[in-house]
Write a structure and sequence with these properties.
- The protein is an all-alpha fold and 266 residues long.
- Helices cover 77% and strands 2% of the residues.
- The protein has nine helices and two strands, in the order βααααααααβα.
- Strands 1-2 form a two-stranded antiparallel sheet.
- It is elongated, with a radius of gyration of 27 Å.
- It starts with 7 loop residues before the first strand and ends in a 5-residue tail after the last helix.
């Protein structure tokens, strides 16, 4: 159900804005390099190419490993978050179904709470997560009411006992998936790691400045390519570190589909 509907949405205008920022940064570093080329003689820089090339290779490998590791980590977190959202939606649908074995009055109250929970997730929690704001407890209180009704039910026959056991398992899965979703709204890259990434990027660009190349336009092109590649990877890390905000986000379509399907579940 949810696996087919939990999709990644791309805010094209915001993505274009981020790429524009990358282009501005590239232009700034290339312009600075062109200015330094006018002040420094290429012959003097070429004398140190052997030593600078060795150091550049060593530092480049270390930085590539660090940047690649961060990209993999944030992508894995994003992929896990998508799966967790699907699990939460499925648990809510299962809970709605399993209380079919409850008495009419209790079943109606629990299902009303689950439907209200789905609407609160769509209309309150998702917009808050998209804006990087604190998620209010509105939906949690509704879910706790449903859980209390599930747990306090006293079955009088085997059908009711089986329904309660299944509902309690789904209830626990729902609480766990919700908790994980809220935890995953926090950025995956801490500030100290961003500092290391930025410092490494500046070091790599500085090495480009101290190389001496006969064709200065070719050297500027290489600088632009390096800065552009690092900038794009920075955008990827930033976007996937926060799976519910930015230009690349996890949509709430799965919840919307579930909310529409709940009345048909028996």
């Amino acid at each position: 159900m949810a696996a087919a509907l939990t999709r990644t949405l791309v805010d094209v205008p915001e993505a274009i804005g981020e790429l524009f920022v990358v282009l501005v940064v590239v232009a700034g570093f290339v312009g600075l390099h062109a200015l330094l080329q006018r002040r420094l003689r290429s012959e003097d820089l070429r004398r140190h190419n052997d030593v600078a090339g060795y150091l550049f290779s060593a530092v480049g490998v270390l930085y590539a490993v660090l940047l690649g590791f961060v990209v993999v980590v944030v992508w894995q977190k994003y992929d896990v978050t998508v799966g967790n959202v699907e699990s939460e939606i499925d648990a809510a649908g299962d809970l709605y179904h399993f209380v079919d074995g409850y008495p009419n009055a209790a079943r109606l109250l629990i299902r009303t709470d689950i439907a209200k929970y789905a609407q609160d997730v769509i209309n309150i929690e998702w917009p808050a997560m998209e804006r990087d704001q604190e998620v209010p407890d509105t939906a949690l209180k509704v879910l706790e009411d449903a859980a209390y009704r599930v747990d306090s039910f006293s079955p009088r026959d085997l059908r009711g006992a089986n329904a309660q056991q299944a509902a309690m398992r789904s209830e626990q899965d729902l609480f766990n998936a919700r908790r994980q979703r809220l935890i995953q709204t926090e950025p995956a890259v801490p500030g100290i790691l961003w500092f290391a990434l930025v410092t490494g990027a500046l070091t790599m660009v500085t090495f480009c400045y101290i190389f001496g190349v006969e064709s200065r336009p070719a050297q500027l092109l290489m600088t632009a390519m390096l800065v552009g590649l690092i900038g794009i990877l920075f955008v990827i890390v930033y976007e996937f570190a926060g799976p519910f905000s930015g230009s690349v986000t996890i949509s709430s379509e799965g919840w919307t589909y579930l909310a529409q399907r709940l009345p048909e579940i028996r």
